[in-house]
Design goal:
The protein is built from two helices and three strands. It is of the alpha+beta class and 63 residues long. It has one domain: Ribosomal protein L30/L7 (Ribosomal Protein L30, Chain: A). The chain has a three-stranded antiparallel sheet with strand order 2-1-3, with no helix packed on it. The longest helix has 9 residues. The two termini are 14 Å apart.
């Protein structure tokens, strides 16, 4: 396992009045309600999704 790192993100912003692609990105990250957390594999694709909605999420833990 070369890349078994994970990243935990927490939703801190509401997707209300946001573009549809930002809402679907949150769902893709496993988030859909405030304060919900999701632990994902740390890949460039996931990092790109986090960057796209960085104003709505917060990185809690990087392991």
């Amino acid at each position: 396992m070369a890349n078994d790192k994970t990243v935990t993100v927490e939703q801190v912003g509401s997707p209300i009045r946001r573009p549809k692609d930002q809402r679907t990105t949150l769902v893709g990250l496993g988030l859909n309600k405030m304060r919900r957390r999701s632990t994902l594999k740390d890949t460039p694709e996931v990092r790109g999704m986090i960057r796209k909605v960085q104003h709505l999420v917060r990185v809690v833990d990087e392991a």
